[in-house]
Structure prediction request, 328 residues.
Amino acid sequence: MSKIIKKIGVLTSGGDSPGMNAAIRSVVRTCAYHNVECIGIYRGYQGMIEGDFKEMGPRSVNNIVNKGGTILKSARSMDFKTPDGRKRAHENLVNAGIDALVVIGGDGTFTGAEIFNNEFGYPVMGIPGTIDNDIFGTSHTLGYDTALNTVVEAIDKIRDTASSHNRLFFVEVMGRDAGHIALNAGIGAGAEEILIPEEDLGLERLLESLQKSKASGKSSSIVVVSEGDKIGKNVFELKEYVEENLPEYDVRVSVLGHMQRGGSPSCFDRVLASRLGVKAVESILEGKSNFMVGLYQDKVALTPLEQAIKGSSKIDEELLRVSDIMTT
Ligand code: F6P
Prediction:
């Protein structure tokens, strides 16, 4: 029989994303609702190793549902990658009487949680928080929807200046290994081309497409490039390449960068965070461990952490086709 859970720890780890605070709030309040103590762990796994803990009651998370970033801070801990670091972290949890852990983050965070669970049999539950949306078992990760809106808003502004000057812009967006942000924001902002790691367009086809676009009378062009794209050139090299091969184009580059990770979460992300936090805590109280809570076929559902990490979050083929048709 599994141990009775009296105290749950919560942390945020890896790249922050809008909605993480809403998820912390949900975990803290669900614990209070079920009369379970909640302990906030600062700076992700690094804070776990250093014993940086603080008790959190329902009033400690007032007015954070609308805040970007994470009040618990985040880190990418190298120490947690070592057996010694994980041993120290485990000792701290045991000494503080923490019985289980909710980790909010992306695949690196889940990989750490899974190893920790395997080594110590320690109960863990994951909540997907990353703007990249590259986790299997959930249609949306926390922060993805907000990031899409941020990117679309930024590209709309770039479009104003691009069309005033008849220019072509390469806009680089985040997405280390995945093109979800680029593809969806690209369609939403009416991009002429979208370069993503999942589909290799090739330089020749990019030139053809830009030529076609010019010939069809378009006054401005936006090419959205995912940072993980495999075309073989970064946005600055792409600018040079196009200027050499299509001198009729006046080209500029805009790298949106970390602004995509900030800002107030969208309503969608706040609601998702609230739902996932409730499910994470209640699943732990039901004795479940080593799962991720996610949104699967519009329902909150559990996916084994191992699958969430190893399974790939596929690009929707229909979206690729829609994107092609929209550039006509
Ligand atoms: O994983 C989320 C993410 O925002 C990626 O899109 C990006 O490549 C990476 O984090 C940037 O990480 P850092 O802030 O550590 O440079």
Observations:
- The chain has two domains: 7-143+265-310, 144-261.
